[in-house]
Amino acid sequence: MILIYNHDTREEMISPFNLHHQNNEIDSKIVVALERLSEAFRVLLWNESKLTSLSPIQIQILIFLLFQPVEKCRVSYLAKEFNMSKPTISDSVKSLLAKGLIQRNDDALDSRSFTVSLTETGKLTAIQSADFTRSIENPVSLLAPQQKEIMLDGLLKIIQELNKAEIITVQRMCFTCTHYRVHDSGHYCKLLQMQLAYKEIRTDCPEHEAISL
Question: Taking a C-beta distance cutoff of 8 angstroms, is the pair 177, 187 a contact?
């Protein structure tokens, strides 16, 4: 069955992409702005993939391996990190192994378990690709410090809610960590035993321990 909407019906639809609705709702404007930014990330990642002859997810895996600790460099964790199935990630890992960009490190205690790490060639490729977001970083750097803090606060709260809704499955930011506390005087980390200025709030912390939902 094909549904046909007349012009008046379309104007009544509640959607951030409905211009009549969007122009009167700041929430919708923010959602559409975020969608435009996500498109920018996709374009930049695709441009990088053309330069390296790798798929976008393969580039993301290389960058992840460059900066994250070895215990996270497993197929199962990568699948959660990028919200993809294990078979899809496994295929990308096999391709990177075949291209000599990563190597397999078998677990001495469990022959079925292994981690992956970068080869020297893979490390060079990852270092080159890790800067693919520069075109987005440049305009962010032009914002005033207070604007940056307000933006960061809003984005972290959105991510936190998406994490609670299990749309974003892996998060390593302060707000979703068992060590994080809010005191009258501000933000506090129990692990570091110190107050945190807002600019010190982490979006990706190596000591992160997730709160059980």
Answer: no
